[in-house]
Design goal:
Bound molecules: alpha-D-galactopyranose
CATH architecture of the largest domain: Distorted Sandwich
Number of strands: 37
Number of domains: 3
CATH superfamily of the largest domain: alpha-galactosidase from lactobacil brevis
Shape: globular
Strand order of the largest sheet: 6-7-8-9-19-15-14-11-12
Oligomer: single chain
Length: 755
């Protein structure tokens, strides 16, 4: 059992793969204090860790005047009794008082993991994967019970946390803040790593030194959002991709969130993550409970690379459900960038027919098939087919696509309503709004009040009908605006602060129903690109559209940023047309393919207008995907350090778990002149020192103008690239020689096979 309780010392020791996390029940007054988190400690008696706590004994104890709460490391710090640092819990009583003081009451340790009510969470896949500790704490004055849930994944460096808060008093209380987890450290020698960006520029890593004060990340948009991802790590100041200590948190939640790293005045630091307290309040009547979502904590003693691989392993096996961890996703073609709203069935089937000939497996009809949706100003909410555009309906179109040998998929944006729609005319009060206040439009649409069951049921009913009448095997679930002027016509004044969380619970409920009612449906999420890219969504959909920026060069940054936490197999990535619709950049079809293959692979262009040569390239890409995507999906990702943030090139590799095979992708962003300027040695990673690898260029892009890159002949075909037989030790230490490469945006894929 990875969770030990030393009763005499009042110490819980949670051991993950090479991590220990230690909790102490301090003193006869039973404060739940944090004693250690980091590399595994083998000692079972760590009583001495209490030492510093005796110096600062909490001031709430009788006869301890002069000592303080503000220096005690707590597992779940509360507001109101002298701890002024970032806290996890703030409670308001019916009388308007704000103070809470939690003490240990009891605990339970058991194998497996409890599912969180109405919320997504990681799960045990096989017996013995994980063990759980439930620590029950109580504020005696409030009669408030707080159960802290810790699950240890024994074979990974992962511990998850969540909290369940129950009011046992007959008077209601209001939660003003109910965070998911907290970490405490006795120093501030950290940088803080967060992921920031914007629409079309999601998931950019930002590294900020931690000092006294706070570094924060968060969202109040109603979704996790494009500007801040629900991820925060404190990393030793010397961290690289391969070295240094990392303590990361990632919230399994898709709404407003807050992550704070605080360097406090006693020279320690505290990290807190959970639902954003802004515009949050939750009323708990007698016997009612609130569940704070799960936060995943990953420890790495080998830098950011190992942190990412741990997140990937966890999410691939313990978050993504059903068949998806083990099946290759179909290669899709989506008509959005090919036609936007301007399509006919003839045009769609032309694209599909050409795509089918190239080996593409799934055709996705994007926005514009329903109501009077001929542009972005109207139609959302009217989930019945526009027979003028799609005569015979989705059923007939799906059949035609199926006849071509392809699966059929459909776009929906169920959380939204256009003012110009039948739905809005019938139910104007269903849109989120504050009475008497202007209701903001974004992209000409309002957000439906998904905290209301009748609204959810009505929308789901319409979509269910479409799906029941057609062979739809894939859904792209979009969400193209954020929440503003949040109020619900169905909630009383003292529950308005519940709307944003109830909205997210409503989204989860419908995604869950969709999956239950159509178990073989592949669900891909999207929110104006990657604006709701979080582990909460991954529980329902194994892939999420990474960004509305489909430019290959911009996409590298977005995909490598997202890969900090999320497996490549979850990042929706497509080859689109050039000049690129977002940046105007021209890159070769091959280079666009290499970048899209570091994600779920697909196309978003008009294949019917492509030349035979281009279609031949697509056929090769389809072939490469089938040969190597299993490796990309299941393997270990290594970002080549030097290339991160390097304006001249990007490079990453995926190594199979048995280390017998690897795939290296290299993209030259900016060609440099001269022999030594342009050539470089790429120090590979993750291989076995002694193993000899046959190292072979399997594809080069059209930008390559240099004829002598490991070639035997000069006829320009890939077959002429000579394989090199090199040991892992040569490849990792001396490096793989990228020789005299010319051409901006030149890309190359290299396959390594153990001999
Ligand atoms: C969003 C998505 C796009 C596309 C459009 C359709 O912007 O991110 O991929 O589906 O909506 O309106």
């Amino acid at each position: 059992m990875s969770i030990l309780f030393n009763e005499q010392a009042g110490i819980f020791k949670l051991d993950a793969l090479d991590t220990s996390y230690i909790i102490g029940i301090f003193d006869e007054d039973k404060f739940v204090s944090h004693l250690y988190y980091g590399k595994k400690i083998i000692d079972s008696d760590v009583n001495y860790l209490y030492g510093p706590l005796y110096q600062v004994r909490p001031s709430v104890l009788p006869g301890q005047a002069g000592r303080i709460m503000d220096a005690v490391p707590f597992e779940y710090p509360t507001y109101g009794c002298g701890d002024y640092r970032e806290h996890c819990l703030e409670v308001e009583t019916a009388d308007g008082y704000h103070a809470c003081d939690l003490r240990y009451e009891s605990h339970k340790i058991y194998p497996g993991k409890t599912h969180l009510n109405g919320l997504p969470s990681t799960f045990e896949r096989e017996d013995g994967d994980c063990n759980t500790l439930e620590l029950v704490c109580r504020d005696k004055v409030l009669k408030l019970k707080v159960t802290l849930l810790y699950t240890v994944f024994e074979h990974l460096n992962v511990i998850t946390r969540a909290a369940l808060i129950t009011n046992e008093d007959e008077k209601a209380v209001y939660l003003k803040r109910a965070m998911s987890g907290c970490l405490e450290f006795d120093h501030q020698n950290f940088d803080v790593l967060t992921l920031h960006g914007s629409w079309e520029r999601e998931c950019g890593p930002v590294r900020t030194p931690l000092r006294q004060g706070k570094v924060t990340t968060g969202s109040t948009r109603g979704e996790s959002g494009p500007t801040d991802n629900p991820f925060l790590a404190v990393i030793s100041s010397d961290v690289t991709e391969d070295t240094g200590e990392v303590f990361a948190m990632n919230l399994v939640y898709s709404g407003n969130f807050l992550g704070v790293a605080e360097g406090h005045h006693f020279r320690g630091s505290r990290i807190v993550m959970g639902i954003n307290p802004v515009n949050f309040s939750w009323k708990l009547g007698q016997g009612e409970s609130f569940t704070a979502p799960e936060v995943v904590m990953v420890y790495s003693d080998q830098g950011l690379g190992k942190m990412s691989r741990t997140f990937h392993d966890l999410y691939r096996r313990h978050l993504i459900r059903d068949v998806y961890p083990d099946t290759l996703r179909p290669i899709l073609v989506n008509n959005w960038e090919a036609t936007y709203f301007d399509f006919t069935v003839k045009k769609l089937t032309e694209i599909a027919a050409e795509a089918a000939k190239c080996g593409i497996e799934l055709f996705v009809l994007d926005d514009g098939w329903f109501g009077n949706r001929n542009d972005e100003r109207r139609g959302l909410g009217d989930w019945f087919v526009n027979e003028e555009k799609v005569p015979g309906g989705i059923g007939r179109l799906a059949k035609e696509i199926n006849h071509l040998g392809m699966k059929f998929g459909l776009w929906i944006e169920p959380e939204m309503v256009s003012p110009d729609s039948e739905l809005f005319r019938a139910h104007p009060d269903w849109a989120i709004q504050i009475p008497g206040r202007h209701r903001s439009l974004f992209r000409h649409q309002y957000v439906l009040d998904w905290s209301r069951k009748e609204v959810r049921d009505h929308i789901y009913g319409m979509i269910h009908q479409v799906l029941s009448g057609a062979n739809v095997e894939y859904i792209k679930w979009d969400m193209n605006r954020t929440l503003t002027e949040t109020a619900s016509a169905a909630l009383p004044a003292d529950r308005q602060g519940e709307l944003c969380h109830r909205y997210v619970l409503g989204v989860y409920e419908i995604m869950g129903r969709l999956r239950d009612d159509f178990p073989s449906l592949l669900l891909e999420n999207c929110s104006a690109g990657g604006s709701r890219f979080d582990p909460g969504v991954l529980y329902y959909s194994p892939q999420i559209w990474g960004s509305d920026d489909s430019d290959a060069i911009e996409r590298i940054k977005i995909e490598m940023g997202a890969s900090m936490c999320y497996p490549l197999s979850t990042i929706g990535a497509h080859v689109s047309a050039v000049p690129n619709h977002q940046t105007g950049r021209i890159t070769s079809l091959e280079t666009r393919g290499y970048v899209a293959m570091a994600g779920t692979f697909g196309y978003e262009l008009d294949i019917a207008r492509m030349s035979e040569d281009e279609k031949a390239v697509i056929r090769k890409q389809v072939d490469l995907y089938h040969k190597y995507h299993g490796l990309v999906k299941d393997g270990d990702l290594y970002r080549i350090e030097d290339s991160l943030g390097n304006p001249d090139y990007a490079c990453w590799m995926v190594v199979s778990k048995d280390k017998k095979e690897a795939l290296l992708t290299y993209i030259q962003i900016h060609a440099l002149p001269g022999y030594f300027g342009a050539a470089r040695r790429l120090r590979l990673k993750g291989l076995q020192e002694e193993t000899v690898y046959e190292t072979k260029v399997i594809s080069v892009s059209a930008e390559v103008r240099n004829e002598d890159v490991h070639r035997e002949g000069a006829d320009g075909t890939e077959k002429t690239y000579a394989a090199l037989n090199l040991t892992g030790s040569a490849l990792m230490n001396a490096g793989y020689w990228m020789d005299r490469l010319s051409g901006d945006y030149m890309g190359m894929m290299i396959h390594l096979q153990a001999k």
